[in-house]
Amino acid sequence: MKFDYLTNDTEKSLAPFFSPLMLSVSFNSIWILGLILLIFWPTKDLFTYFQGHKIPLNFLGVFVAALLINSYLGLRCGRGEMFAKDYFSRLGYEGVITLEEEHNFFSYGLAAFILHSIFLLLIVLPLLIVSAAVSGISMSVFFKVLTVLFTASLLCRLFAFLMYLVFGKWSFLGYLLSRGFLIFFLFVTAVFASFINPVFLIYAFYQGQELLPRSSINAYGYYMMIVTCVILLLTLANQVMIRHNKAKRK
Description:
Layout lengths: L3 H4 L12 H20 L6 H6 L6 H21 L8 H7 L5 H4 L2 H18 L2 H10 L4 H29 L4 H21 L5 H10 L11 H31 L1
Helix pairs in contact: 2-4, 4-7, 4-8, 4-9, 4-10, 4-11, 7-9, 9-10, 9-11, 9-12
C-alpha cells in the first residue's frame, strides 16, 4: 500500500504517476519546453554574446516556463484534477476517499508529493541542462535554480491539497483559492516581496545577481528559508486536516 501512488491508476489515487492522463500532461511539458528552447536558441555564435557581455535567453525562457508548468501541474495534482472531466467519470469519483486521505500524510502523501515533483523535473531535465549550458550558467547556479523549481511545485501542490481537504474536489471556491495562491506566489509577490518570488529569483540568477537591489540580502537564502517554513506549515496543516476528516467519517 505504501507505494500505490506509483502504480494505482484508479479513482483511489489523487494523481497516479503513470496514468495515461498524467503521462500525457507530463510529456506535453517536454515538447512545450523544447519549443521554447528552439525559439530562444542563439542566432549568433556564443562567443559574440559573451564578448558583448550578454547571455543568451535560453536559460531564462526555459526555466521560467518550467517553473510555471511544474507549479501548475503540482497545483492540479494536489487538487485531484488529473482525471477525466466528463459527467459520468465525475460520478465515478463521487464519495471516493483517496489513499492520500486514508493514510498518515507524513509517511504517504508527503512522500508521494516529493517523489512526483522530482519525477516531473527529471523528465524535462535534459532540456534544462541544454538551456543552462547554452547560456553559460555555472553548475552551482543550475542546481540552485532546480531547487527553486522543486520547492515552488511542492508548495503549490501542498496548498492545493489543503484546499481539496477543506472544501472537497468539486468546490469552486477551492478551485479559485488554489489558482489565486498560484498567481499570488508567482507574480504578486514580485511587487512587495521579491525575495520570495521564484520568477524574480530565476531572473536574478540569469543576471548573475543573487543580492536584492539596494540591499545586502541574499535572495536565494531568504527564498529557501521562507518557502521551506511555509512547506512545513502546510504539511502540518494537511496532516491535521486528514486526521480531522478521518474523525468526522468515523
